[in-house]
Amino acid sequence: MKPQPFTITIHMVSSLDGKIAKPDNSIEWFETTDHYEKGVTGQDPEVFLKTIDCYVMGARTYELALELSKNYGWAYGDTPTIVISSRSLPIERPNVELYSGDLNQLVEERLKPHYRNVWVVGGALLVKAFIDLKLANEIRQTILPIILGEGKPFFEKIEGEQALHLKDVTAYQNGMVELCYEIVG
What we know:
By secondary structure, the chain is an alpha/beta fold. The chain is 20% helix and 28% strand.
């Protein structure tokens, strides 16, 4: 049996106009009442989430996740989570650790030896760094059926053009569409 290759996936949920958060960081817009009859129901979320070995996120994403966990629970379960920050942040879970340093070194020395499927889950500055340093293999963008008009963009000041190859598209019954692109070159 061939071993699974090491993959870093950038994943983000956004509005159709590419916003990942409202200016006030509220998330009620994540709930959709749309219905698309040709859509699929999707894989069992619990089964799918078990395929992710490690999450990587920026400090602001972590702080928002901590705040949201008070009402919704910790979205990342017991999966190891590395928070990229030079600030001291509260660590409330044993599977969360802080990292401050070179991202190439993080990938080569911490991620590759221990994990196969790593997901970078935000924010925009961390996504930019992973793309600019050519550390990510693919981008999965789940688009919700809403236009926010204002808010925080998914991509912010990416340096230069980046060619992509469409690997997969999935339309869900709730109106969400997931695009999966391989990062080329």
